[in-house]
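Before we proceed, please read the two lines closing this message. Tell me what the token row says about the fold.
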Amino acid sequence: MTPLPKPPKRPCGSCPYRRDVPSGVWAPEEYAKLPPYDGETWEQPLGLFMCHQRDGRICGGWLQTHDADHLLALRLHPVDPSAYDYASDVACFTSGREAAEHGLKNIAAPDPAAHQLISKLTRLPKLSAVSEEDAAAAIRPMRSGHPQAKQRSSSEGYPE
């Protein structure tokens, strides 16, 4: 039997909901996924918001930011009971909209801390869906500070 999805002990170090994660780490389409969960229960996305680390866990920042009693996805999908009373000592934004606005603020010119985190993420084996040459080509513009730097998308081939 497959275990039910459960949250991490704390939101991961690159979670878009965390207040201490630099702006511009994720692609704009990743930040666009955050605000819809702020809506009324009936208008929210149907899918669970999984961790961008692709470790099979539910996003801890998503659970901490939103009221689990009003997340439609938690009503539709069986999850580990720990998801319903999730809390951690990590400071997260108060809404998906606030997290998305922060994430998009420096999207055209991420600061050095964001570049460092992007580089770290592209080296993770579970995120490597491309060849090393393609990954190096994607990172190269980011290291040079190019304003059109290609951002990492966590949704490639990942169901919502």
